[in-house]
Amino acid sequence: MGAEFLFMDDNARPHCANIVDECLQSEDITRMDWPAYSPDLNPIAHEWDMLDRRIAARQPPPTCLPELWRALLDEWCNIPQDQD
């Protein structure tokens, strides 16, 4: 990947694991520093929340990984573009 990439994470414990740090260093990827919980700084957090709610509301719910993958793609494509 290289130096042109900037890794934005939320400093959550899984993202700070040694294996993650080692991978980022081996790929020469810079990590952006920011607080552990900051959904206001991470605009995609709102989209993930919306996607999670849309998947949870599906009836019947996905029962296997291929169904979940299709449901995620369908719901992602159907998120309104003008919604804040």
From TrEMBL:
Residues 10-59 form the Tc1-like transposase DDE domain. The gene is AVEN_145541_1. One of its GO terms (molecular function) is nucleic acid binding. Gene3D superfamilies: Ribonuclease H-like superfamily/Ribonuclease H. It comes from Trichonephila clavipes (Golden silk orbweaver). This is DDE_3 domain-containing protein. Coiled coil: none annotated. InterPro entries: RNaseH_sf, Tc1-like_DDE_dom.
